[in-house]
Amino acid sequence: MAAARKSMHGEWSSRWIFILAATGSAVGLGNIWRFPYVTGENGGGAFVLVYLACVAFVGIPILAAEILLGRRGRQSPINTMRVLADDEGLSSRWAYVGWMGVVAGFLILSFYSVVAGWSLAYIFYVAGGVFNDATIADSQGEFHQLTGSVARLTLWHAAFMAMTMFVVARGVSGGLEKAVKLLMPALFSILLVIVGYSLTTGDAAAGLRYLFEPDFSKINGATILAALGQAFFSLSLGMGSIMVYGSYLPKDVSIAQTSIIVGCADTVVALLAGIAIFPIVFGYGLEPGQGPGLVFITLTIAFGHMPGGQFFGALFFILLTVAAWTSAISILEPVVAWLVESARWSRLKASLIGGVSAWLLGIGSLLSFNYWEDFTPGGRNFFDWAEFISTTILLPLGGMLVAIFAGWRLSLASSMDEFGTGPSVGYRTWLGLILFVAPLGVAIVFAEGTGLRRAVGSFLAAVSTALFS
Ligand code: PFF
Q1: What is the pTM of this model?
Q2: What total number of domains does the chain contain?
Q3: Ligand 1 geometric centre to CA of 108 (Å)
């Protein structure tokens, strides 16, 4: 029955197109904007090491699981989870995993579009020579001027969301396929140019030491939780983006191979971004833990001083915007696919309503950089909360449920059929990781990072004291 299913939204024209689209979803602000600053906030090398382990042992297996479920269900994540649960005689409540993804997606898209709007604005700033010979103070000043202006932020946020709605409304295959084919290699090349510049003019030794020399005293529950959240965010996992892309994947494509390619490409881009940024941070005596402004402040200093910097800088922000665009499209797609399937709306109506709702929510994040800067209930502003709830809580939780479903609830016959390799070494390795390592890993990290383990420990200690003393 599953083998005969077809997606009503169409199919990718080849395996490569899927790899490009999934890589386009994975590579985005998460790699170039978020990875360096979260690494900076979490002390460098040790965080990177934990991050790599999360990608290899939890991220890539769940990536494969999402593709597998998507291709078997051939619908939006909510409906895919429902039909697969039905196929296996399980509760239709599994569809809640899809619903959780929708909530996470709205939250992510809302702040993602605000930051992508900065990147869009920076294309024009850099091209206009604003950063020529800029000092640190100039660069910081420009950034704060942008984030201090509600009008400008709203405009750029709206422009980016409009771009996203436009592509999603037209259907994913037409424009997106062509764009990723050309632009992902271009992004990669320009990143290499900046890496070369940064290593030769910044403090390469300090930058590389910071990134790759682990200081294990910096590892604690919160760091590991942050690394896990970053792995999910960067690989687009836990909310249905990869699942919905998987639902358009032809049947004969190898899931194992494609997952590994996408996972590695994403990781290489994140590491390159780190290598591009930290030598400049240390060369100029900047603070690595300065938060979301890190990339915008450090790289513009580099562009302001390198030969041809106006050109390369503008090109860099064009490519960063495109990388963010291909990711944002994949965040909106699951909701739109669901609205088209279930509410029978046109793609245009679904994209408009989905995009505008996320845009409205994004206004809260946008105000966190100015009027609401000091409104920090529980120590976080609106932007930080949106990011924390979606990335650090909902994505790992969604991913864990996907792992449990694919490993423990889906029959082995079904998963082996999708893998298409029989009980091969690759399949058995995946099965071991998805059955035990991924769900347990997320559960332990979660319990530790959120303080739950200690809370449960204290509770049990109190109970045993009450009972036995
Ligand atoms: N992976 C994207 C990035 O690294 O920028 C962001 C993202 C896309 C997160 C899709 C989640 C998602 F479902």
Answers
A1: 0.92
A2: 1
A3: 8
